[in-house]
Structure formats: structure tokens, C-alpha cells
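Problem: given the chain below (106 residues), write out its structure.
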Amino acid sequence: MKVKLAEALLRRKELQQKVDVLKNIKQSNLFEMKGQRTKVTDSVDDIVLQVPKLYVSQVTEEYDWHARQLRLVDAAIQQANWQTELELDPASMGDYVPTRAIQQYK
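Solution.
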């Protein structure tokens, strides 16, 4: 599929944001604490359970998919970067040179 460079740059940004979000999901965010008050013995009357909201494998699979897509898009952008030449004014690639008026006072 052929896309414009601008589209690929936007896609790379979208994928990077998704990868960053998935990378920052903490193990504690995957579980919901649920408690039920139950009289088990005289000294124990509260049982707390961790119920998974989703499984680590789901997050890992989604992270891996997005990270792979990001690498593919980034590689295509880098290839275009190395193969594309731009026509620039030579002065835009040079270093700053002070004007003569400023040099007189030195």
C-alpha cells in the first residue's frame, strides 16, 4: 500500500502513543479488588478477592502487535529519509557568520 509520508508520520505518532499507554499499564491496574464480608471464624470475618479485569496476555499481545507495527512504519519512514534529497538554499546548511557591522566593533 502506498501512502504519503505525512500519513506515515501520523501513523507512527499514533502507534507510539498506543505503545506508551500499553507500556504504562501496571499489574495492579489489571485487577479489581472485591470484598465480601463473611464470618469464617471468630477472628476472621473478611475475605478479599482479586478479580481480573483482563489478562496480562491480552495486554502483552496488544502491546507486541502495536510495537511491531510501529517498527515497520518507522523503518519505512527511515528508508524514505535516507533516499530523499531536498533542494535547499546553500546558506541554510551553513554556520552563522556575523555581519561586517558587528565585526568592526571586535
